[in-house]
Amino acid sequence: MRQLQITPWQAFFVLVVAMAILVLAVDASGNGYFQTFTALMLIQVMLAVSLTMTNGFTGMFSLGHPAFMTIGAYVAILFTYPVGRKGFAMPALPEAVAQIHLSLPVAALVGGLVAALMGWIIGRLVVHLQTHYLAVATLGLIIVVQTFALNLDGFTRGGRGITGIPREATLALIGFFTVLVIVLCWRIKHASIGRAMLAVRENEMAARCFGIKAIRIKVMAFVLGAGIAGFCGALLPHVVSVMSPKSFGLILAFNLIAIIVVGGQGSIIGAIFAAVLITFGSESLRQVEEATGVYGVTQVIVAVALIAFLLVRPKGLFGLKEPFVRTS
Question: Membrane-spanning regions, if any (predicted)?
C-alpha cells in the first residue's frame, strides 16, 4: 500500500490551518485552563524542535536548554515588567533600563538574542566535548545560571521570584511563533547547512575530510538552539505570570531529552508528535497525583516508560525520517 506523502508547501499549509483551528477553538472555549495548557504545550513543541536541531542534527548531547530559557526569561522580564513597579521589585536595575518598556515580541527577541550570545560564548568552549562530557558540562551550566539568578537579588528577587508579570503571551502569538520556529528548523534541516550538520552527526571525521568545518557547524547549531530556547523562556513567564530561578531546571531538561528520544533524534515531526504526547501524558498524570496525593509519580512513570521505549525502539518513533512529507 502506497504511503500518503505531501509536499513541504502542502505541509506548511496544513500546519498553518491546523494551528489556526487550534487557536480559534481553544480561544472560543473561553476556558482559561485549556488556554494555558495549550500555550504551554506549544512552547514545549518549540523547545523540542529546537533541541532536535541542536542534538538530533549534529549528534551533540546538550542538556543546557533550561539555562538559556532562564537567561531569556529574565532579560525579557526586565523590559516588560511595569515601569512603576520595577523600583520595588528590581532596585539594582540601572535607571536607564528601569524606564524602558517594550512589547513582548520585541522583549522576547532581545531575550533570545542575549541567550544566543551566551550560547555562542559557551558553545565555543564546550562543543569540543563529546557525548556525556558535553551533557555534564551543560548540566553544570544550568546550576551556574540558577545560582546567579538566586544571588542577583536586586535584579531577580532571588528565591522569592518575580510575580505579577503581565500575561501578554496570547495563544495566537505563541501559535504564530510556533509555526515560525518549525518552518525555520525545517528549512535548516533541508538546506546545505542542515546536510552539513547531519554529515557531522553521522561521521565527523569523514565530514572534515570533505571540507566541512565541523566545530563551526556545531557552534552554529548550539547558538540557534540557545537563541530559540531563550525566546521560549521569555514567552513562558508571560503565560503563567511568575518566574523564579528554579522555573527551568533539571526536570525540564530530562523531559526535553525524553521528547526527542521518543520522537527520533533528528525528526522534526517526531519531536512535535512526542512533545504533544508527553505533555498530554504528564498533565493527565499530574491530575492523578493531585487526586491520590502521590506526588512525583509522573516523573517516575515517564522515566520507566522512556527506558522501556528505548529497549523496544532505540531510534525513536521516526529516527531521522519525516513521515508523511516528501523530502526529496
Answer: 7-26, 32-51, 63-82, 102-121, 133-149, 169-188, 219-240, 252-280, 292-312
Nearby residues of 55 by Cβ (< 8 Å), 6 or more positions away: 61, 62, 225, 257, 260, 265
Mean pLDDT value across residues 266-288: 88
DSSP 40-86: HHHHHHHHHHHHIIIIIIT------HHHHHHHHHHHHHHHHS-HHHH
**Closest listed residue to residue 62, CA positions, set 222, 169, 301:** 222
CA 135-139-145 angle, to 5 degrees, is: 145
Residue 196 sits at φ, ψ, to 5 deg, of: -65, -40
Helix segments in 81-213, DSSP class H: 83-89, 95-98, 104-126, 131-151, 153-156, 171-189, 192-202, 204-209
- CA 221 to CA 87: how far, in whole Å? 38
- Quote the CA–CA distance of 249 and 238 in Å, as a whole number: 18
Which grid cell is 116?
544566543
Q: Which three cell numbers stand for residue 153?
A: 537579588
Residue pointed to by grid coordinates 485549556: 34
Model pTM score:
0.92
pLDDT above 70 coverage of the chain, percent: 98
Q: Map 92-119 to HEC letters.
A: CCCHHHHCCCCCHHHHHHHHHHHHHHHH
Which strand (E) or helix (H) includes residue 283? helix 268-292
pLDDT tens digits, 92-149? 888 888 899 999 999 999 999 999 999 999 999 998 887 788 999 999 999 999 999 9
Q: Which amino acid is at 114?
A: V
